[in-house]
Specification:
Number of strands: 15
Structural class: alpha/beta
Order of helices and strands: HEEHEHEHEHEEEEHEHEHEEEHEHHH
Number of helices: 12
Strand content: 15-25%
Largest sheet: 8 strands, mixed
């Protein structure tokens, strides 16, 4: 049986971030997690040295993978210090938060823009929204990919009606699956559909890093990331690891959902990620029999909250049986009913997002953003 001590013995041959102390004694290691022949851990570093310390990360990965019984080691660099690792370096020696973030975030090869579709809580239709927005962005003329970063509840395999495992292109690089012309990657392609994902923070962070950087995304204008609900490890990993072009916050109109949407906006602002806007999902229910409108979860709450927070309001998506039925069947309304009212709602939101990306790119080399 592989033990933590065995892995630490191998890691003793790797010099830590200070260039002198063996890694296990450096105070920078996170908890070491071993599961199914894989070992996961992270190394806390100064974000400004991320490129410089990449060789150390690879050496740690190789050392851990050399332990008998370990098929793969997944090691990430993080700016979060593990508990008990001692005080941080004096503040005057550290770069400012914006400078550190800019230095630490490395772009994903071939991907021009990465946007996070997030919510402060579950059950607001975030994944369905992310799927249809990605398809709508593709209709505006962009090349689009989708990363399902909801490790605990991946939905993209069902929404895109995709099954099977990604092929290995070379080394550890995986080829994403394709659905409706979009490149799609999800942890759901790598585990059984009903498997319980009982993973700790370092494992979640490592999995997201792998799906970002060890996937052959090719040339994309936009990578839409379906985030898990909340403001935890996955959101921080994404915000710290890559230069996000912006975040889209999904909420229902009711007060309970809006409270969590505020937290989502505050979290992305805290890590210096632009808010592209707020979407009000399940906005109004239109009875399919009598045609009367009912505001089951209220109406207009997300618009009001966006105005209060000073962020764009992107639009409303109704609560409708067609959206639910088509999503469950792996036939998103943007492709199955492209001329219908629900597809138009997503397309209007996608155009606003594309315009926001184009505005955010001002002063840089212009990406290929086309708006109908």
């Amino acid at each position: 049986m592989v033990t933590r001590e065995t892995i630490l013995e191998r890691l003793a041959s790797v010099v830590g971030p200070d260039g002198k102390t063996p890694l296990p004694q450096s105070g920078t290691l996170s908890e070491i997690v071993v599961q199914d022949g894989k070992v996961y851990f992270s190394i806390a570093i100064d974000p400004a040295r991320s490129m410089e310390l990449e060789a150390m990360r690879r050496a740690a990965e190789e050392a851990a993978a050399s332990v008998p019984g370990i098929a793969q080691a997944i090691v990430t660099l993080t700016s979060d210090r593990p508990a008990g690792s001692g005080p941080s370096a004096p503040a005057q020696r550290q770069p400012g938060p914006r400078a550190a973030a800019a230095q630490a975030k490395a772009a994903v090869a071939g991907v021009r823009h990465i946007i996070a579709v997030a919510s402060g809580k579950g059950g607001v239709g975030k994944s369905t929204t992310a799927c249809n927005l990605a398809l709508a962005l593709a209709r505006t003329g962009l090349s689009v990919g989708v990363l399902d970063a909801d490790i605990y509840g991946p939905s993209m395999p069902r929404l895109f009606a995709l099954k099977g495992r990604p092929q290995v292109v070379s080394g550890r690089t995986l080829k994403p699956l394709e659905g409706y012309g979009l490149k799609v990657m999800s942890i759901g392609f790598l585990v059984e559909e009903e498997a319980a994902m009982i993973w700790r923070g370092p494992m979640v962070m490592s999995a997201i890093q792998q799906m970002l950087r060890e996937v052959a995304w090719g040339d994309l204008d936009v990578l839409v990331v379906d985030m898990p609900p909340g403001t935890g490890d996955a959101q921080l990993t994404m915000a710290q690891a890559v230069p996000l072009a912006g975040a889209v916050i999904v909420s229902t109109p009711q007060d309970l959902a809006l409270i969590d949407a505020r937290r989502g906006v505050a979290m992305f602002r805290r890590v210096d990620v632009p808010i592209l806007g707020v979407v009000e999902n399940m906005s109004t229910f239109i009875c399919p029999h009598c045609g009367n409108a009912s505001d089951i979860f209220g109406h207009g709450g997300a618009r009001h909250e966006a105005e209060r927070l000073g962020v764009p309001f992107l639009g409303e998506v109704p609560l409708h049986m067609t959206i639910r039925e088509k999503s469950d069947a792996g036939l998103p309304v943007v492709v199955s009913e492209p001329d219908g009212p629900h597809a138009r709602a997503y397309l209007d939101i996608a155009r606003k997002i594309a315009a926001g990306l184009a505005d955010g790119a001002a002063g840089r080399a212009a990406p290929r953003i086309v708006i109908e």
